[in-house]
Amino acid sequence: MAHTKKKDIIFKGKEQLQKQFRLQQRTDLTAATTVLQWLELTLKPLIPEKIYWQCQVALIEAFTNIVRHAHQHLPPSTPIEMQINLYQNYLEMYIWDHGDPFDLFEYLQSINPKQCQSLDKEEGRGLYLIDQLMDELEQKRVTQERNCLVMRKLLDV
Fold it and tell me: Which domains does the chain have, with CATH numbers?
């Protein structure tokens, strides 16, 4: 089920894929540096700066949430897979985890935006930020042991 923020945005996959990038990392917060470097080398030269910054924040928040929450009881060798599909007018970022099923949209409906905007709070803002920065989110259970978060962003500024 997709969570779309703007009613006029419909991603139907009609555009031809221009580029695709993939990365796999261990369940380790220190791997966040590698994720950021990968994103800078692959995506930054291809999209507007503002969109790049938004995608960078969303992807690193998703990665960090997986390490801290979805994989908290799993060994560090558990892989986190990422993929970016770049189209002419939008991009998709996929991130797969091996955590328990999680109802992202129920969680997003339950959070208080004012609490998420408070700078006093150190945690609990990641999914709110991702929702605010991306144009569409979709979460699905792809196998018995894997979840996939799909984040879509239009490339016009």
Answer: 17-154 (3.30.565.10)
State the Cα torsion 4-10-16-22 to the nearest 10°.
10
Tell me the pLDDT of the chain (157 aa) as tens digits: 555 555 455 566 678 999 999 999 999 999 999 999 999 999 999 999 999 999 999 999 999 999 999 999 999 999 999 999 999 999 999 999 999 998 888 888 887 665 555 545 555 678 889 999 999 999 999 988 999 999 999 998 5
List beta partners, residue 96.
Answer: 81, 148
Q: What whole-number distance in Å separates Cα of residue 148 and Cα of residue 141?
A: 6
